[in-house]
Amino acid sequence: MKVFALTFGDENCPSTKYRLIQHKDHLLNDGIEFDHEIAKSFNDFKKLSGYDLVILQKTILSSSKIRRIAKYAKRLIYDADDRIWLRPFRKYNLFTQMRINYRMRTICNYAEFCMVANEVIAKDIISYGGKPSVVPMALDGKIWFPKEEQNEKIVIGWTGAPANLSFLEKILHPLRDVLIRNSDVKLVIHCGHDPCFENLDYEYIPYIPGKEAEVVRSFDIGLLPLPSKDPFVDGKSPIKGIQYLASGLAIISAKTHS
């Protein structure tokens, strides 16, 4: 069997990596060939006819492009691990949201079914006329596992994409208080960009592909702040929460005011 994925990002994009790419070797062991290209730049539609299954991951393409994909794909599946049809923190204007909704209805019309990460997303897919199947986020247990050695200091860590640093910013004041009052506590920020937070004592560890598990395993406590009253966030299945659990960390997760 041959599978082709039109992905949201490259191999280091978290949603693409953990929803699809990490399973590539496992699929190959079962005799399933897996190829992929980024959806937004893909235009070789006839190529899709050479595959048994096409997965469109989390990308809301134009209706015309969806129809061309469906024309050549023997079977089409849509995959979503968050509410990509919504915008975090503020709504799209009316006409933009109407266009997105139309595209989502087109996707759901042509997709045999939609793989979704949770029930919140599943309800949205149903509203667009699609057939959802819940496939939760998962990690490879051979890579993600609890640490054995203890740290000299208690390490509080946050890991995430630069776009999500705004979530961490909401809890900087209490973090400063914790670090000031507890000399045996250390803060680590693991990200593709150093936020350069002022008046905050922390160690920055740059993101390096393939090193995430090692870094997260060095934490004792994992931070997972999420803004409150935000529909986009309500549909998230944060992979970092699963990473923290798999690494044996205590998790501090709370809704914050945006």
Word description of this protein:
Helix content is 31%, strand content 24%. The chain has helices at 14-19, 24-29, 63-72, 94-110, 119-127, 165-169, 172-181, 212-217, 231-234, 239-246, and strands at 2-7, 33-38, 53-57, 76-80, 113-116, 132-134, 154-160, 185-191, 203-206, 221-227, 250-256. It has a six-stranded parallel β-sheet with strand order 2-1-3-4-5-6. The protein has a five-stranded parallel β-sheet with strand order 9-8-7-10-11, sandwiched between helices.
Unreliable parts: none
Task: Using the CA coordinates, give the radius of gyration.
Answer: 20 Å
Largest sheet: 6 strands, parallel
- Helices, by number, come to 10
Question: Which bin fits the share of residues in helices?
Answer: 25-40%
Strand-residue proportion: 15-25%
**Strand tally, please?**
11
Give the class from helix and strand content and strand pairing: alpha/beta
Specify the overall morphology. globular
Q: Biggest sheet: strands side by side, in what order?
A: 2-1-3-4-5-6
The N- to C-terminal Cα distance equals: 46 Å
Succession of helices and strands: EHHEEHEHEHEEHHEEHEHHE
What average pLDDT do the residues reach? 94
